[in-house]
Amino acid sequence: MEKKKNNNIPWVEKYRPKSIKEMALPQARVNRHRVNLAEELIQFVESFFEEMEKINEENKKIKAYNRTAPSNKQKKLLSMDPKKAALLLEGPPGIGKTSLVYALAHDLNMEVIETNASDTRTRKALENKLKETTRSKGILDFIIETKRKLILIDEVDGIYGVKDKGAIPAILDLIQQTQFPIIMCSNEYKQNLQPIYDAVKKYEVLPLSKEEILKITRTIIKKEKITNLTKEDLELIIDKNNGDLRGIINDLQGMSQEIKDEDKKQFIYSLYRNNNIEIFTLIRDLFQKANSLREARMLVDQSDVDYALLYKWINENLPSFAYNNDELAEALENLTLADEIYGRIRKNMEWSLLPYFFDLFAGGVTLAISPEHKSKGFRRVTFPRYIMQRSLSSLSVAERNLIEKIKIKHDMSDREIIKDFLPFLRLLGKSSRKMLKEISDWLELEAREKKLIR
Question: Which whole-number Å values give the CA distances from 255 to 165, 245, 250, 252, 325, in the listed order?
Fold first, then answer.
């Protein structure tokens, strides 16, 4: 019974280190010089609060002076140097950047306030999420002693596009006004983030060595009593994931399932196959073969695809498989509820809710589409573009022109158009020739652009 309970908890969370002392600390560089990342982060936080205390004391005096001084003699309030207020951790996904921030907060008895810049990517959304947190300690903090806060802005490299540009100035403003230290994380260099690179200190975080990864995985294998894994199997899992510790741990959890001896070889082979091929098949099976909640559960349980990644694939491809708008609306409602539950899971660590999350995002979508409407023919499965983090320069001319024409009609970012608007245009365009013509006339599309929504 205990084993079943533990299996409800993703191992990436179960084995997320709570303290920096428990971590295999990744190496880091600043301007090509190697640094001790733990020491640097602790020093950054402690120095921030020392500096902020001095600034706040001086600003009290300035405010008192300004209340009686003529307007032409009033003094400007002091603010902290952005390089002392915030920093950026840049490195490949799955190497422990976010885990390090949470471990740091735990060791310093701090509360993490997290937002994902690729989700709250507009200026307004970021300000609504963080402005009050960064500017003020809150009323209750003056009444009772509470934890200090550490602001985490994750995936800042997910910001791009015309409308999204407002998010970068918003982040810079928040850094200028914050009462709490800010740590940002990104997976890779992006040219549009240059203002942030110029403003704060950037740490290049490197993947863990193979020796460190082997040490971590062997500990997990021992604790979980995995006996069906050879040395060659483990080496292959590590090599396949290219240093992504999160992916490696997900694969280990997949290998922990109870498998009959005669099926073991086939299961291991499926675990090593190309992830893109596996997820393409999984999406088609969920939309076209599963007709019950039980069947949807079995498909998800048998897959080693990360649950958060699978959620994004389902969300992206839903419009291609929904038969009509009613089914699409019901499926989207289930996805929305799943997203809310996942937010509670992450915020409150309520992993007992995870089965409900699975049921809503996989089973909820499966059940929203009537069995008689499930097409047995070929349907194209699309890789989520916001996961690809595709640069605008890699878009075709027709795609670029189509996006620009949509932006003339609606004030939307490139990302919003690609992620949310185009799938619905395609759904409408495929419904009838008349509708396709109306969309084409409305946007004044050329032949190549018209093909993109047909």
Answer: 43, 15, 9, 5, 39
Distance between CA atoms of residues 60 and 78, nearest Å: 10
- DSSP result, 168-233: HHHHHHHHHH-SS-EEEEESS--GGGHHHHHHSEEEEEPPPPHHHHHHHHHHHHHHHT--S--HHH
Contact between 117 and 174 under an 8 Å Cβ cutoff? The reply is no
Average pLDDT of the segment spanning 107-129: 70
DSSP assignment letter at 273:
S
Contacts (Cβ under 8 Å, ≥6 apart) of 436? 428, 429, 430, 450, 453, 454
pLDDT of residue 126: 62
CA distance 317 to 385: 11
- 422-431 and 397-409 helices, crossing angle to 10°: 90
CA distance 133 to 150: 10
Q: Which residues pair with 35 in a beta bridge?
A: 28
Cβ proximity of 316 and 286 under 8 Å? no
pLDDT given for residue 431 in this prediction: 66
Domains annotated for the chain, with CATH where assigned, are 25-205 (3.40.50.300), 210-373 (no CATH), 391-451 (no CATH)
Instruction: Identify which of 72-86, 115-129, 142-156, 393-407 has the greatest average pLDDT.
Output: 72-86
Give percent of the chain above pLDDT 90. Answer: 20
Two structure tokens written together for 420: 């949310």
Average pLDDT of the chain? 76
Span 338-353, average pLDDT: 74
Tell whether the model's pLDDT for residue 142 goes beyond 60: no
Which residue from 327, 334, 401 is spatially nearest to 369, judged by alpha carbons? 327
- How far, in Å, CA of 307 to CA of 340, rounded? 15
**Amino acid (one-letter) located at 449:** E
H or E element in which residue 89 lies = strand 86-90
- What is the tens place of the pLDDT at every residue in 425-438? 776 776 677 778 88
Q: Is the pLDDT of residue 121 over 60?
A: no
